[in-house]
Amino acid sequence: MKTEVLSMKMFLAGEWISKEESIAVLNPQDDSFITSVPAASAEDMLIAIEQAKEGAQIAASMPVHQRISILNKAANYINENSEKYAETIALEGSKTILQARAEVKRCIQTLQISAEEARRIHGETIPFDQGEGSEDRLGYYYRFPIGIIAAITPFNDPLNLVAHKVGPAIASGNAIIVKPATVTPLSALLLAEAFEAAGLPPKVISVITGHGGEIGDILITHPAIRMVSFTGGLETGEKIAHKAGLKKISMELGSNSPVIILKDADLPGAVEATVSGAFYAVGQNCLGVQRVYIEQDIYDEFCSEFIVRVRQYRVGDKMLETTDMGPMISEKEAMRVEKWVNEAVDKGATLLIGGKREGAFYSPTVLTDVPADCTIAQQEIFGPVVLLYPVDDFSSAIEKSNDVDYGLQAGIFTRDIEKAFEAIEKMNVGGIMINDSSDYRIDGMPFGGVKGSGLGREGVKYAIQEMTEPKVVSFKLNYKKSM
Predict the structure, then answer these.
(1) Do 318 and 195 sit in the same domain of this protein?
(2) Is the residue at 411 inside a domain?
(3) For 399, which of 16, 133, 146, 457 is 20 to 30 Å away at the CA?
(4) What's the start-to-end Cα distance of the chain, in Å?
(5) Are 261 and 295 in contact (CB under 8 A)?
(6) Following DSSP, what letter does each residue of 444-456 receive, concatenated?
(7) What are the record keywords, sorted (predicted)?
(8) How many CB atoms lie under 10 A from the CB of residue 113?
């Protein structure tokens, strides 16, 4: 299966620009060449920022109906070219073609939700006379766009996670500069193509391709940038936070997601959901199931059924509709996962299945008896590996679930409503899924975590809150003094 991909250009303030220096975009499945994109320079990023200053003024002055129209037209453009978008996602990244098609559908929904939320950016009246001496004042607040937003996006959802930053930015009247992942820039460029086709005024959006070491610091430290929206790893997020200066920061930094299986759970449903949650998109998923805590009474049965389901997983060519799991994003990443698994086994972990690497492919892997001091027990795996643990009781499962420096989402399987609510209260996460794995999200919900999982919330409505500020308006009315 082949697709035409965008030519070797980046989108700088409404213009498609090529450069002498370029970056090869490779298919991680076999390292075959797809195309190349410009390697932007520091000067290119400075130009994009200068252009975005005017773009921010243009965006802020766009009436709401125009923003709605542009967002819906962009969504329609993607829908009309959906297979092109899906094939591009699958070719440059790790997703299978079926998973890529699902991402395209979500991207369309994200832009449609952005259009809907553009009409709901409301303020409120303020009863100023609640303060003594302010009986002669009336007023309100409204929300205004903050200006230029820097969006730094990851490889694992190269279209929809970009849309989660671009859609709310346009809906709220901001300009935005996107720095996509170096290994998966094509999907972000196709999103820019959709907005150009939709009639978005030039200078409102730029998608600048290049190496983070060359252009990243300029983007995040420039005083004209009023917000940095970053999705990626904790280590990089911490560096950005230290460098960014006085500006808003929104970060989704991944997780080490736990799922609890109690003895009253629907076992077949729990197995199916946790296997999918562990291995969807090769485990390169911030919501991916990494740790499963199973009550001792059902531990052996759960493990047995879990392995049976994992054995059915079909690993191979990601462009085939029959494939469940393709390669990781690079052989380097597969080697990292291999190293972490081997470390755990050397320290006493039991390998139930998997643990095999061939190039960028790493087989679905299940470990038990993993010591707490292993890297794989504490850090985000971001690969197709899941750890199974027996626990004596519910309280122990909660305690162990919270015992990492992450807290994005979690899951619990139980029929006991009391225990479900106890988990809701006691689990330190940004979202908890009852009778589902941690790997569940819709694009309209607030999305983010606590501890090392990040700052702020995405999800269109909630991203718009981050991308706007309230402005208070107060009228002092002389006629009120004479009353």
Answers:
(1) no
(2) yes
(3) 457
(4) 78
(5) yes
(6) TS-B--SGGGEES
(7) Oxidoreductase
(8) 23
E strand or H helix at 470, and its extent?
A: strand 468-476
213, two tokens: 């070491």
Question: Is the pTM value of this prediction over 0.70?
Answer: yes
Residue type present at position 150: A
* Assigned domain for 289 exists: yes
Tens digits of per-residue pLDDT, 415-466?
999 999 999 999 999 999 999 999 999 999 999 999 999 999 999 999 999 9
**15 token code pair:** 């213009």
How many domains in the chain? Answer: 2
Identity of the residue numbered 55: G
In a domain, 442, yes or no: no
478: exposed, middle or buried (Cβ count in 10 Å: 0-12, 13-18, 19+): exposed
**What does the pLDDT look like over 47-59, one tens digit per residue?**
999 999 999 999 9
Same domain (yes/no): 425, 458: no
362, β-bridge pairs: 357
Give me the domain span that covers residue 36: 10-254+454-471
Q: Which residues pair with 295 in a beta bridge?
A: 391
Which residues have a catalytic role annotated? 252, 286
